[in-house]
Amino acid sequence: DSLVKRGYCLFVCTSKPEPTARKILSHLGIDQYFTEICGATMDAKIDTKAQVINLCFERAPWHLKEETVLIGDTMFDVDGANQVGIKCIGITWGSGTRDDLYEHGAIEVFDYPDEVLDYIEGN
User: Fold this and answer.
1) What is the percentage of the chain residues whose pLDDT exceeds 90?
2) Does the pLDDT value for residue 123 go beyond 90?
3) What does the alpha-carbon distance between residue 11 and residue 2 come to, in Å, rounded to a whole number?
4) Contact present, 73 and 96 (Cβ < 8 Å)
5) At CA 52, angle to CA 47 and CA 55, rounded to 5?
6) Cβ distance 38 to 52 under 8 Å?
7) Residues 98-105: contacts with CB within 8 Å, 24+ apart?
């Protein structure tokens, strides 16, 4: 909510099937915060994190990679971001570990949402 109110465009880039992701976000009542929700395809033509990230850029070609940061909780998020050429901020309230996130190249790792907001606003 804080990022959207400050004018940032948010995307979901998940390796979960896109229809499932859309259903979950809608059920949680947070789908309206996202410009786009991208996920794996049911036919597995798009199934890696890098492919899903590229799908987001295809759907929103006005977004520049150099102005984009992925916020992720696993090494797979960091790896996907690196493969596509964007930065990744790690977060510890998901399923990955701080060490894995840093080891795979996260530019920063945070423990609380407010830290992510402060970092983004400061850079």
Assistant:
1) 98
2) no
3) 14
4) yes
5) 125
6) yes
7) 100/74, 100/75, 101/72, 101/73, 101/74, 101/75, 103/75, 104/75, 104/78, 104/79, 105/78, 105/79
pLDDT of 86-117, one tens digit each?
999 999 999 999 999 999 999 999 999 999 99
Question: Which tens digits make up the pLDDT trace of 19-61?
Answer: 999 999 999 999 999 999 999 999 999 999 999 999 999 999 9
